Structure prediction request, 276 residues.
Amino acid sequence: MLRLYATASGLIVERDGRFHACSASLDEIFVSVDPLEFLNDRLRHARLATTSVSEWTLHAPIQSQEVWAAGVTYFRSRTARMEESKVAGGGNFYDRVYEAERPELFFKSTPHRVAAPGTPVRIRGDATWNVPEPELTLAINSRGKIFGYTIGNDMSSRDIEGENPLYLPQAKVYDRSAALGPCIVITDTLPAATTVIAVAIRRGGSVAFHGETTVGQIKRPLPLLADWLFRENSFPHGCFLMTGTGIVPPDSFTLRRGDEIQITIEPVGTLVNTVA
Ligand code: DO4
Ligand code: MG
Prediction:
């Protein structure tokens, strides 16, 4: 297992607790046949980095990749969405997609809309009910191989989405509506069902919301989500796939400017972003 960080001074790879400067680009990694093998090969000639992770300015670990997302993959998400769209009569859609063979997959972000670790995510000025969605996010190469994972935040405007399911792109896609990081774990092994996804939202020195779930609560096998995404769709630079949220705060909760969102999935670490 390797941890790949995108930093202001280039890519850094952590292997067995040691940090190596890596001359490859993220695009080269995402188009390689086997990214783990590719990186291990590059590390044979790499120099050791002299600084440690806390001293780097982290970038989002993305270059030319699109970010896509799966929805309603957890029972909790299905139930919350049926509630929020009840007035608009959209509740039935969510139950049906939860049960259907075809998953909900939607376009989430281009690289320029993705917030780096430690930088602000945004809530829309025309939305009144906003939440983070903490999601295990797959790194998939141009051939459709899942070669690692990271943490994703699928920021969402629940009032806009709940008003009409056709407003989903506006509820989901806007500047800084996604965050990725702090690193990509490069591995041939998918996270175990017991892997915990946890979120804490800090407001003015205390915790305004915290919740957790496990990867085992996802209804669909992760490789099947990736297979569906690659059906009739090509990704010349690979892509990221957010795999859905299993944590939805109570309906009384909405994000405020200044909130700090901390999402933890080990061994990726913790993705921290404030709300601008
Ligand atoms: O159906 C709307 C979006 C669902 C979603 O983003 C999720 O379940 O995580
Ligand atoms: Mg989501």
Remarks:
- Residues 69, 71-72, 77, 81, 104, 133, 154, 168, 244-245 surround 2,5-dioxopentanoic acid (ligand 1) (CB under 6 Å).
- The helical segments are 26-31, 35-43, 75-84, 91-99, 158-163, 168-172, 222-230.
